[in-house]
Write a structure and sequence with these properties.
The protein has about 250 residues and is mainly β. It is built from 1 helix and 16 strands. The protein has one helix at about 235-245, and strands spanning about 10-15, 15-20, 25-30, 50, 60, 70-75, 80-85, 95-100, 125, 135-140, 150-160, 175-180, 200, 210, 225-230, 235. The strands form 2 sheets. Strands 1, 2, 3, 4, 6, 8, 9, 10, 11, 12, 13, 14, 15 and 16 form a 14-stranded mixed beta sheet that branches. It has a two-stranded parallel sheet with strand order 5-7. The protein is elongated, with a radius of gyration of 21 Å.
C-alpha cells in the first residue's frame, strides 16, 4: 500500500521572478531584480507583469509576444529610452500600461503606431519621462488606435502640441499631467483632443510651472469638463483667469 501526498503551492520562482496565483489570476512580480531586458521564460498565462525598478534601456520588437493574456503591464522606473517597432505585438487583451519614470522622449522614443496592438487598453501612463529642461516643441505619439482608452497620463513640457486628428478616442475622459513645465498654453495645445474629457489634473512631484497662458480658449476643446484640479501649480493670476475663462458660466470642481 502506497501513500501518495500531493503538495500544491500557489507560487513558484522563475527567472528570479515571483509567480503567484492560479489560472486566470497569475501574476509575475519581476520588480527590482536588475533585469536588463524583458524575461522570455515566464509562464505564458500570466495576467500581470510587474517589471518596475529594473535596468531596462531598450525594449525589442515582440518582447511580450509570449504573454498574450496580459492585462496589466508595469514598466515604471527603468531606464527605457526607446521602444522598437511592434514592441507590444500580441497584447490585445492588455488593459493597463504604465511606463512612468523612464527616459522616453515623446519626439523620438515612440515608433509610428507603437500602441496600435493595444486595442483593449483603458489606462496609459507615460508621465515623468520628459525633462524639465526640454525647450523644444513636443509632438505626442499617436493614440488613434486606442479606442477603449479612458485614462491618459503624460508630461507637458516646452511647447506641447497634441495631434489627434482622425483619432477615435471617444471614451477618453480623464487627463493627468503629472509633470508640467510649459512655455505657454495656446489654443493649439489641445486643439485635437476629444471633447469627451470630463477631468483634467495638472500636478507634478516637483511642482508644475506654466510661464504663460497666451490664449484664453486653450481649454475650450473640453465642453464636458467638470473637474479641473491644479496641484502644486505655479502660474500668474492673469494666466489662471484665462485658464478658467471658457467655464465662467459653469460650476466645476
Amino acid at each position: 500500500m502506497f501513500l501518495i501526498i500531493i503538495l500544491r503551492f500557489s507560487y513558484v520562482y522563475c527567472s528570479s521572478c515571483h509567480i503567484t496565483g492560479n489560472a486566470k489570476s497569475k501574476v509575475a512580480d519581476c520588480s527590482l531584480r536588475g533585469f536588463l531586458s524583458v524575461p522570455r521564460d515566464l509562464p505564458d498565462d500570466i495576467v500581470k507583469l510587474d517589471l518596475r525598478g529594473n535596468e531596462i534601456v531598450n525594449i525589442t520588437a515582440q518582447a511580450f509576444i509570449r504573454y498574450r493574456t496580459l492585462q496589466v503591464l508595469i514598466l515604471n522606473n527603468n531606464k527605457i529610452s526607446y521602444l522598437e517597432d511592434n514592441t507590444f505585438a500580441g497584447l490585445g487583451t492588455l488593459d493597463k500600461l504604465s511606463m512612468f519614470g523612464n527616459n522616453l522622449d515623446t519626439n523620438e522614443s515612440y515608433p509610428l503606431d507603437i500602441f496600435s496592438p493595444l486595442v483593449s487598453l483603458t489606462t496609459l501612463n507615460i508621465s515623468r519621462n520628459m525633462k524639465n529642461t526640454n525647450r523644444k516643441t513636443v509632438f505626442y505619439p499617436s493614440f488613434g488606435e486606442l479606442y477603449n482608452l479612458t485614462n491618459l497620463a503624460v508630461d507637458l513640457t516646452g511647447d506641447s502640441v497634441f495631434n489627434m486628428s482622425g483619432s477615435n478616442l471617444t471614451k477618453l475622459n480623464t487627463l493627468l499631467f503629472d509633470c508640467c513645465y510649459l512655455d505657454r498654453m495656446t489654443n493649439k495645445t489641445f486643439f485635437d483632443m476629444p471633447s469627451s474629457i470630463v477631468s483634467i489634473t495638472f500636478t507634478g512631484h516637483d511642482g508644475c510651472t506654466i510661464f504663460s497662458v497666451a490664449e484664453a480658449d486653450f481649454l475650450r476643446p473640453f465642453p464636458s469638463l467638470r473637474i479641473l484640479r491644479l496641484k502644486r501649480v505655479c502660474l500668474e493670476l492673469e494666466s489662471a483667469l484665462k485658464m478658467l475663462y471658457p467655464f465662467r458660466k459653469q460650476k466645476n470642481e
